[in-house]
Automatic annotation (TrEMBL):
Pfam family, one: HTH_5
Organism name: Brevibacterium daeguense
Domain HTH arsR-type positions: 6-100
Domain Rhodanese: 136-225
CDD domains: HTH_ARSR, RHOD
SUPFAM superfamilies per UniProt: Rhodanese/Cell cycle control phosphatase, Winged helix' DNA-binding domain
Protein's UniProt keywords contain Signal: no
The keyword rRNA-binding is annotated on this UniProt entry: no
Listed name of the protein: Metalloregulator ArsR/SmtB family transcription factor
Keyword annotations from UniProtKB, A to Z: DNA-binding, Transcription, Transcription regulation
Amino acid sequence: MGDRQRKKELFNQLARVGKALGNGKRLELVDLLAQGERSVEHLAVVAGLGLSTASAHLQVLKQAGLVNTRKDGTRIFYTLAGLDVAGLYEQLRNVAVDRMAEAERARDDYLHGGRAPVPEAQEQELSREDLLARAADGAVTVLDVRPAEEFAAGHIPGAVSIPLEKLQQRLDELPPDQQVVAYCRGACCVLAYEAVELLHAHGRQARRLQDGMLEWRLAELPVTTGHAA
């Protein structure tokens, strides 16, 4: 039968992971850390948090064993404790969107700017398998529109780095007669959607990778590190 108290302790310990992830801002921090190592200061700015609040959230994640820390002088840097943590986050996100209509609506509302998704949006997507095949043939330009720090932490081999906020000013760096495939952080990242919309507005051929860097890593596909040339 087993010892009831020991069983209770086991499930209480398992619940610590669920409690650590049971906060929207902490999930956002996990989403950001899935892109690579970040300082507390950087995470606070990108997540729209005060420094002390960001630190408190990160400590909860650390106590649950979900993140690791590294000190560099007076600065503290965080990373996910492993690819399994990124996979857990992906599964949580997918279950929420698949099982809760509210989560699906919130995702669509965010990704489509409050507009209803149109059938043509799926035609603008490209799967990982198709991207690998077309990139190998030199048929597309792969565009990473995440911040430069995230590109440096890991990107699709051969990708061009142009952060979204600089894309309009740097359009001439993209071949005018070749299709561009843009990608960003993951399936719930809006940057690639906005990049494709901007490229279309300037008469460019553009599609969006179906998901993003999170899913690319989880699929154990090739990843290159380092800043853009």
